Amino acid sequence: MQPNADHSHPGDIAPDTLVVSAGRPPRVTDQPVNHPIVLTSTYFGAVAPEEGERVYGRYSNPTWDPLEEALGQLERAALPGLVYASGMAAVASAMSLAPAGAVLVIPRHSYNGSLSLVQDLIVRTGLEVRLADIEDTEATLSLLDGADMLWLESPTNPMLEVADLRALAAGARAAGALTVVDNTFSTPLLQRPLELGADVVVHSATKYIGGHSDVVLGAVVTSDPQLRASLQRHRTLHGAIAGPFEAWLTLRGLRTMALRIDRSSASAAELARRLADHPAIESVRYPGLPGDPGHARAAAQMDGFGSILAVCVAGGAEAAERMLTALRLWTPATSLGGVESLAERRRRHASEPESVPENLVRLSVGIENVEDLWNDLRRALDALAPGPAA
Ligand SMILES: *Cc1c(COP(=O)(O)O)cnc(C)c1O
């Protein structure tokens, strides 16, 4: 963990400045303004390891430090974050904070990798799982009795359901459960779960933080020194470490995250309005739409609505697939949060919960011109439902 002089007052600096200014090297004349990539498996001076020594490349790498510093500051945490080999490595590390045989409350529409991992943990560690409809705060609170961990995503992937994070984190605290929030969809620019009462925040930095669909990396952030020490120990012993090049690329991506999210969120809001009026679309879920079930909650706890939409295509899975095949500019591919717009029918994955509609297409809006994005979508949708075009 690198001490950083800036860490005591990041609260004074706006998040869209922090993405640029956090994690910079000290200002030394003639020295670079960016940290270098450090490639090493070991460090001089490991004869008698003292606390603070780096010792070995699986324990620490100087290329992780500025990214961890920046992520900690962005989440308004008291400590730097921890970076991992992937979002799932971060998820697994955070879930390891629940003891063997623990009771875990988790949204029924969580990221399917998290749900699959939970299925493994049920078999291997006796984890008891309670699936929650997180749009129903009272029902979710009622599952917390005897729980050890409340796992949250908000908005959920891919249903875009919004949880009342403050109420649920308070309920979990009262029940003696840790609250972990997977903040991948929102990023710390739009939502800071630690400020809303969560104990731990998880990210797939593969998505918005990296932002260019060219790196896989994860992160965990907490303000609790004991939790951080447990997470770091888990990372070291499981070897779930980020490569230095991946850490460097992710910090480079982070520098433009505010611009990317501003642009893609504005386009997402426009596309959500237009899609809602298209006859080939049954329904649109986007928290930024005033009629969306999550709108009021998202407006209260987020600084924007993000750039993921879920649309249900009239005519079922087959029509949804035909629409995807007809797209020329949008890329039919999994993942999200990159500069390029991606579209995917989520139920093509066998691991996706069956309560996710077969005809649901998740749209990750990128930074292209919004009219080009709309024209491509409209052309593909018009071909499904000929008639008066929107
Ligand atoms: C992609 C994703 C993950 C997993 O991250 P990887 O980097 O792919 O391992 C976890 N949670 C959410 C919400 C995601 O979208």
TrEMBL record:
This is PLP-dependent aspartate aminotransferase family protein. It comes from Arthrobacter halodurans. GO terms for molecular function: transaminase activity. Belongs to the trans-sulfuration enzymes family. Keywords: Aminotransferase, Pyridoxal phosphate, Transferase. Its cofactor is pyridoxal 5'-phosphate. It holds the Pfam family Cys_Met_Meta_PP.
